Amino acid sequence: SANILLGVAGGFGASIPAPGHVHHNGMELIRLGEMQGGVTARLESVAAVWKDAGFNVKTFEDINQLIWEKFLCNVAMSGAAAAFGITIGDVIENPVTWKIAQHLANEAYAVGKAKGVHFSFDDPVQYVKDFGSKMPKAKPSMLLDLQDQRVTEVDAINGMVPVVAEQVGLSAPYNEAVTAMIEAKESFFA
Fold it and tell me: How many angstroms separate the CA atoms of 37 and 47, rounded?
């Protein structure tokens, strides 16, 4: 962490529809914070550069909380959507995939709590559902990667939950299974 300048929790999405072309899926807010907490002059200086470039930026006391909250949504929605080849709305609407997404979210939430994360909510399932309901037609980047036969970032999302779970004496079997499913898909073209 000595080489990490700041933490960022982005409120936007993007995709690569073709080589050399990037599609921006909307910009909400870029959240910046010191990894050790607090708002420093360095943080404000970096935020000013982003703002001067036209971005909507805000600094936060506890960026770790925001990173984990975004991580939770990625774990549940991106993991399930990629594993089953469906949109976020389909994840929520299908009782079977929604149940799996709930387990993914609950495992990540338990791990975060054990790591001392101060979430802004007590119900991770409702939080993830509220997030996903805003973009039912969205295809997360891991799903888009699989559709284009590219290796995903599953190791840093669902694959990371069991790793951190083990560090805090927990397990994450649903995240292990979803990681294995996505890695199996990757093995056909990687």
Answer: 15
